[in-house]
Amino acid sequence: MTSPTDQSVAGNAFLEIVNPSVDTSSIQHALFDFDGTISVMREGWQEIMIPLFVEVLADTPNHEGIEQLEQYARDYVARSTGIDTIYQMIHLAEQVESRGGRPLDPLDYKKEYLKRLMDRISSRIEAVRSGQVHPLDVTMKGAIAFLEMMRDHGVKMYVASGTDHANVVDEATVVGAAQFFGEHIYGALDNYWERSKAKVIQDILQKNNLSGNSLVVFGDGFVEIENCKEAGGIAVGVASDEVNRCGMNQWKRERLIDAGADVIIPDFSDIDALERFLFNS
User: Fold this and answer.
1) Closest CA to 208 of 265, 157, 153
2) Domains defined along the chain, listed by start
3) Tens digit of pLDDT for each residue in 14-33?
4) Angle of CA points 178, 184, 187, to nearest 5°
């Protein structure tokens, strides 16, 4: 039996084929996660959310020790990467209640998390907006050139993100990616029940009368890969190292394979290998 690490495209180890039977012959549409897949502007968000979880849960009557709370928070945040932030805050409220506390409205937890996150990243955004930092320095290596290649092949592209809609549109514009998606950028809404990555995928397939393997999904989170496979799409797991913007994050790789990824890549730097794989060229 051949292991995933033994598979490659034309001998190129950059692109790891996990599912040898994956069929890319019908690709017409591509959906991208944004943070950690295209942009690294929000790199380190986990280290904002995890302490918030610990702080809130440590204030409940029946909480565990701090080390146990930290491990719980870290495991949950890792498992939930890719979903809308509000669902993570709903989970936090449920955990407060289960430990004998009186939770705030999940939207209040979300506001506090976003305040702390923006304190961390607002200077990054402004540095790019002002021209002090080049947009390519806050995107995954090769991402913008890869989007150009996909556009040249006539692929219609979309973004679905757990980040609030206004923020993901703004940040996609700042890093130079918005031009490839037009109006098809779908961020999280306040009425969160009306939009999810799973719903965006289903809408793409239904509105365009597509079969699943006409859609390829790129993402670094468990959620979008799982949603893609449930819809019969082609799932490319981006096991990104967000600090260095290139190279393989082994922990992400394992999680993405567990989620059902057909293919694993570390970034978009080897466009030739990706083009050969996606378009048999």
Assistant:
1) 157
2) 8-40+139-279 (3.40.50.1000), 46-129 (no CATH)
3) 999 999 999 999 999 999 99
4) 85
